[in-house]
Inverse folding.
């Protein structure tokens, strides 16, 4: 190695150990076009599991820069999904461009950095686990960018729901970090609860992610795979059209051509939180309801739900919505994905009278144990075998994935039990109940 290379390495090491001005970094971010920015140290304990996500992406991370871009509220509030979706995609693109430019300027200062992505693409090999590589929302909360509202969106103190987030990971410490807001901009108006077409939002219950994903993300992930399977399994055009209405086929074309289309963003559209909008809402509450909330509720449109779910029951209460029963295919590729996905595919409606503790012991390629507790319409998934089990399932991990992904027949499952490659301890009727609470 020559002297020039030696000097470069020394400078890089010196820069990585230096402490930079938070004001200088924020100034760069604002100059490049962000609407707000906050900084969080990687060792903050409140980050929890997010710290692992960050370090997996960039092991040198010492500071996380949380940034946001404001969306134009009127577009998101529009009854036209095309206008709302275009605003999402344009803001996403702008935010990605801004993040890239910020990293370029930081590099010139001697700060090494990695910018993430506001939303997509995602790592599909983690399907049914955690699809997104990094959780922007908890980072934004710790950076003082806002707090989580009833609608599960980060509510910015000025811009409310109408922001998109990104994170930039840098290898340097700064002299001052930001902290969470000491109040929540959410005004508890519960307009988001009233307008959700699938009843995914509750003021005092867990968010129904599966209901939201099945409808809002119909053109994404599991909904897209379901559509492809409908194509492949149809022997004639007529049979395909019986499975998939023309408007849904065209929606897929639109998503593939111009960016995946969200079926709803009503929880965001009706939200009056933030200094920009709260005054308008308070002074013109009636007009807000008549011009923004009511049109979303009364819009005639298809609503995609899975059969036998709370979402189906909720959607059928609105005569303006056409209920379409669909599959939202989630096929975990690992035991970790299965355990994470269990929280998502759990259906509270089917579990109202189910109370059980299930021990899962997986062997083979992915040896692991876990406990699932189902009680009063809720689910809790933890590692290890805890409490006294009503049902214990022991199975080879690869065979278990085939079972839950319906890749083997009931006869093959019986063969696994007979050959003791799968063992059930406890009342076998509970096994059927256990399987039934997942969609």
């Amino acid at each position: 190695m020559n002297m020039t290379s030696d000097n470069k390495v020394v400078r890089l090491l010196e820069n990585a150990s230096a402490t930079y001005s938070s004001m200088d970094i924020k100034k760069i971010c604002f100059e490049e076009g962000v609407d707000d920015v906050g900084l969080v140290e990687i060792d903050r304990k409140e980050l929890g599991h997010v710290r692992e996500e960050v370090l997996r992406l960039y092991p040198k991370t010492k500071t996380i820069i949380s940034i946001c871009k404001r969306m134009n509220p009127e577009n998101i509030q529009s009854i036209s999904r095309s206008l709302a979706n275009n605003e999402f995609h344009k803001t996403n693109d702008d935010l990605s461009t801004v993040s890239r430019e910020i990293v370029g300027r930081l590099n010139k200062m001697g700060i090494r950095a990695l910018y993430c992505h506001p939303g997509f693409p995602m790592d599909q090999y983690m399907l049914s686990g955690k699809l997104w590589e990094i959780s922007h929302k908890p980072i934004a909360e710790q950076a003082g960018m806002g707090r989580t509202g009833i609608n599960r969106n980060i509510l910015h103190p000025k811009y409310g729901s109408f922001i998109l987030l990104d994170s930039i990971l840098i290898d340097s410490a700064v002299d001052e970090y930001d902290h969470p807001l000491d109040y929540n901009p959410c005004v508890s108006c519960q307009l988001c609860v009233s307008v959700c077409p699938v009843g995914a939002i509750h003021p005092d219950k867990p968010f129904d992610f599966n209901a939201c994903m099945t409808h809002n993300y119909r053109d994404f992930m599991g909904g897209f795979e379901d559509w492809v399977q409908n194509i492949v399994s149809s022997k004639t055009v007529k049979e395909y059209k019986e499975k998939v209405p023309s408007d849904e086929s065209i929606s897929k074309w639109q998503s593939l051509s111009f960016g995946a289309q969200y079926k709803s963003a009503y929880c965001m559209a009706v939200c009056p939180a933030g200094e920009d909008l709260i005054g308008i809402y308070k002074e013109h509450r009636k007009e807000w309801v008549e011009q923004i909330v009511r049109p979303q509720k009364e819009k005639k449109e298809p609503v995609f739900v899975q059969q036998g779910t709370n979402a189906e029951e909720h959607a059928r209460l609105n005569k303006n919505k056409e209920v379409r029963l669909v599959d939202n295919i989630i096929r975990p590729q690992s035991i970790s994905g299965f355990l994470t996905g269990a929280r998502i595919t759990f259906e509270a409606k089917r579990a109202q009278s189910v109370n059980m503790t299930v021990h899962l012991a997986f062997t083979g390629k992915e040896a692991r144990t876990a406990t699932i507790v189902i009680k009063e319409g809720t689910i809790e998934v933890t590692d290890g075998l805890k409490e006294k089990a009503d049902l214990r399932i022991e199975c080879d991990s690869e065979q278990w994935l085939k079972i839950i992904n319906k890749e083997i027949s009931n006869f093959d499952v019986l063969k696994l039990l007979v050959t003791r490659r799968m063992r059930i301890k406890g009342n076998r009727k509970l096994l059927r109940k256990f399987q039934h609470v997942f969609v």
User: Anything to note?
Assistant: Residues 191-299+312-322 form one domain.
